[in-house]
Write a structure and sequence with these properties.
514 residues; alpha+beta; 5-stranded mixed β-sheet; 20 helices; 9 strands
Length: 514
C-alpha cells in the first residue's frame, strides 16, 4: 500500500527525535488499551481524523465517528484523496487525514507507528484466534444439542433470548471464516446485549447471532458483503427463540438451496409458495391444511418442510443433522400416517401448500365444524367403497373426499379466478413441446435422465428446453419450492393430459412448432 500525499523524508518532523519518541510512547500506551484508543490517539497526534477501514466491515474504528464514510471511501479510492496518508494494517487500511499545519513527516511517522502497532495487536489476536474459534464451534454445537442454559450461562447473558442463524457454503470457507472473524470481532463478554458465534461445525460456515428478540442488521450486512466478495451462498433463519436453535439451523440450510449467484443470501421465510398462498381463499385453505396435518406433530411437519424445501432426502438429512436412512424411514412412516404417496410430485406440491398455510382463524371454528364432519363422513364412505371418485368434494366444497386428502384439493381452492390468472401469468405462452417436457420433468422430481427417456429425446435436448422454460418463466427451477409452484400452475391451466406421447414431432426425435 502506497502512501499518498507524504514522503518518508524527515519522518520525525522538524522537532527532532525526542518528539518522535514522545509520539511513539503515546501511541504505545494507547495500543495497550484497545484498537479504538490507538486510532483516537493517532487522530489527536495529526490534529485531524483517523479511520481503520476493513473491506468487509467498513470502518472498524473511526475518530471522529463522522469521518467513517470518508475513511472507507479514501481506502477504496486513494488517488481521489491525495491529502490522506494510508498504510496497510492487520488486513485493513489505516487512513489518516492530518491538519494542513501538521508537517508531512510527522503524519508519516504517526501512520507508520500506528500501523506497526495494529499489526502487533493483530498478530496477538491471531495467536488466540484458533482457540477462540474452537470455543465458538463448541458453543454452537451445544446450542444445537439443546443446552441453551449452559451456553447463556457461559455468555453471562440472561438477555439473550433469540437467535438468528446463517449457514454459508462456498469454495474457500477457511479464508472467508477468518475474514468474517476480523470483520465481526466476536466477543463472548458477559452481560452483552448481543453475541455473535462463528464456527465451522460440519465443514460449513455457521453464524449464530444471539440477541434480545431483534438485531440491528449489522451481521446481515457483513454476511452479505462476505458472500459477494468470496462467492458464497447463504441461508438465513430467524429470529427464533433460543430454544429453537435446531429449527433455525435446519431452516437456514433449506433456504440456502434457494440461493443463486444473483441472490446469494436467502431468508427462510422467503422460501415457499408465497406468490400463490395469498391468492387462496383463507377459510377453506386453513381448514383443509389443518385437517390434512392433524396426524402430524410439529417435529414431523418441520421434517417434511425441510425435505420439500431442499428437494431431496440427502440434502434434508444434512440440514437436519440426521442420516439419509433415518430421513427416508421417517418419511415412509409419515406417508403411512397421511395415507398418501409422498413420492408423487402432485402430492408433494399439495403438502407444501398445507405446510405453508396460515393458522386457522378461531372465529371460523364453528363455521368449519360442519365441514370437518362432512369430511370425516366422506372419508369413511370412500374407504368403504361408498364414494364414486376421489376427486369429488363434499357438499359445501370445503374439503376433498377420497382415500387420501392430500391427493385432491377442495374445488374452491385452486379453482378461483385469481389462482387461474396467476397460473396463466406464470406458465401461459409456453410452447406445447416446452410445456409437455416441463410437466414430465417435474413429475420425475427434476431428474433429467428418466424424463428424457419417457420423452424419447436426448438429455441435452431436454436440458436446452428446460433452460428455455426457466427463461420464459423467469424463475429459478433449481429451487424445489419454485418447482412445486410451477407444477401447480401447470395443473391449474391444463387443457389436455400434457402426455409425452402428445409431444409434437416431425420424424425421428425432432419436434415441430405449433
Amino acid at each position: 500500500m502506497s502512501s499518498t500525499g507524504t514522503t518518508d523524508h524527515g519522518a520525525t518532523g522538524p522537532r527532532g527525535a525526542g518528539h518522535g519518541r514522545e509520539t511513539a510512547d503515546r501511541l504505545l500506551r494507547a495500543a495497550t488499551r484497545s484498537g479504538a484508543h490507538l486510532i483516537a490517539e493517532a487522530a489527536s497526534l495529526v490534529q485531524g481524523w483517523a479511520v481503520l477501514a476493513d473491506p468487509i466491515a467498513g470502518a472498524v474504528y473511526s475518530t471522529p465517528a463522522a469521518a467513517a464514510a470518508d475513511g472507507v471511501h479514501a481506502a477504496a479510492a486513494p488517488l481521489e484523496h491525495p491529502h490522506c496518508t494510508q498504510r496497510p494494517a492487520a488486513g485493513a487500511v489505516l487512513v489518516l487525514a492530518p491538519a494542513p499545519t501538521v508537517p508531512p513527516g510527522h503524519a508519516c511517522h504517526v501512520a507508520t507507528t500506528t500501523a506497526a502497532l495494529l499489526e502487533v495487536r493483530g498478530q496477538r489476536a491471531a495467536e488466540l484466534r484458533g482457540e477462540q474459534m474452537r470455543l465458538h464451534t463448541t458453543l454452537i454445537r451445544l446450542l444445537l444439542a439443546g443446552h441453551t442454559a449452559a451456553v447463556t450461562e457461559t455468555l453471562g447473558g440472561n438477555r439473550l433470548t433469540h437467535v438468528t442463524v446463517y449457514r454459508l457454503s462456498g469454495p474457500d470457507l477457511p479464508t472467508a471464516h477468518e475474514v468474517l472473524w476480523r470483520a465481526v470481532r466476536p466477543s463472548i463478554a458477559p452481560h452483552a446485549d448481543a453475541c455473535t458465534l462463528i464456527g465451522r461445525p460440519d465443514g460449513e460456515l455457521v453464524v449464530a447471532e444471539l440477541h434480545h428478540g431483534g438485531d440491528d442488521g449489522r451481521i446481515l450486512r457483513l454476511v452479505s458483503r462476505l458472500s459477494e466478495r468470496h462467492h458464497l451462498l447463504a441461508g438465513m433463519a430467524g429470529p427464533l427463540p433460543l430454544a429453537e436453535m435446531a429449527t433455525a439451523h435446519s431452516d437456514a440450510a433449506a433456504a440456502r438451496h434457494s440461493a443463486t449467484p444473483d441472490c446469494r443470501i436467502v431468508p427462510a421465510d422467503a422460501v415457499g409458495t408465497s406468490r400463490l398462498t395469498p391468492l387462496l381463499p383463507a377459510a377453506p385453505y386453513a381448514r383443509w391444511a389443518e385437517s390434512v396435518l392433524r396426524p402430524l406433530s410439529p417435529a414431523h411437519q418441520h421434517l417434511l418442510l425441510v425435505w420439500l424445501r431442499t428437494g431431496s432426502k440427502p440434502r434434508a438429512a444434512a440440514a437436519l443433522a440426521l442420516s439419509a436412512g433415518t430421513v427416508r424411514a421417517r418419511i415412509r412412516e409419515l406417508s403411512r400416517l397421511l395415507g398418501a404417496d409422498l413420492e408423487d410430485a402432485t402430492v408433494q406440491a399439495y403438502l407444501l401448500l398445507a405446510l405453508r398455510a396460515p393458522a386457522p382463524d378461531p372465529g371460523l371454528d364453528d363455521a368449519g365444524a360442519d365441514a370437518d364432519a362432512d369430511l370425516s363422513l366422506s372419508s369413511r364412505l370412500s374407504r368403504s367403497g361408498g364414494s364414486s371418485s376421489s376427486n369429488n368434494s363434499n357438499g359445501n366444497g370445503n374439503c376433498p373426499a377420497g382415500p387420501a386428502r392430500l391427493e385432491a384439493l377442495p374445488d374452491d381452492l385452486l379453482g378461483t379466478e385469481a389462482v387461474r390468472s396467476w397460473a396463466v401469468g406464470l406458465v401461459g405462452g409456453l410452447e406445447p413441446h416446452l410445456r409437455i417436457a416441463l410437466a414430465c420433468w417435474l413429475r420425475h422430481h427434476a431428474r433429467t435422465a428418466p424424463a428424457a427417456t419417457e420423452l424419447h429425446v436426448h438429455r441435452t435436448t431436454l436440458a436446452g428446453w428446460l433452460t428455455q422454460c426457466a427463461d420464459h418463466l423467469a424463475r429459478n427451477l433449481a429451487d424445489a419450492t419454485v418447482r412445486a409452484e410451477v407444477h401447480l400452475a401447470l395443473k391449474a391451466t391444463r387443457n389436455g393430459p400434457d402426455d409425452p406421447t402428445c409431444l409434437p414431432r416431425r420424424g425421428g426425435r425432432t419436434y415441430r412448432r405449433l
